[in-house]
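Sanity check record (used in CI):
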Amino acid sequence: MKKRVVFILIVIVVCSGLYLTFKRDFDQFNPLYKEEYVYAVVTKPDGTEGKDDRIRYRYNLTGYTALGQKKKITFSSSSELEKNAYILVLAKGAYTKKWTLIHKEDVPDKALK
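Expected output for YxeA family protein:
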C-alpha cells in the first residue's frame, strides 16, 4: 500500500513538471481553453532563440482582450519588432496561434487601458 502511494505521488510530480515545462504546447490542445484575440503593445524582446541566420526574438507581453480582461501572451518573431507598435494576437492559453501588427485605431477602447 505504501509503495503505491509513493508511486502515485512520483507520477503526479513528474506530470506536473512536464506540464509546467511544456505549458505552451499543452495549451494548444487543451479543450478547456478557448481561442481569443488579445491586444498588446510591443516592448523590447525578452530574449533570442536559435543561432546565426535562424534567430527568433521572444516576446512576453501583457495584453488585454476586447472586453478589457488582462492576459499574458508569449510569441516569437524572426525579426525584431518596432517598439511601441500595437499587436493583435490569437491566443489559446499560453499558446499563440498567430499575431499581426495593427494600428492604434484598430484597438478597442477597453483594451487600451
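The first strand starts at residue 36 and ends at 41. If this sentence no longer matches the regenerated C-alpha cells, the check is flagged for review.
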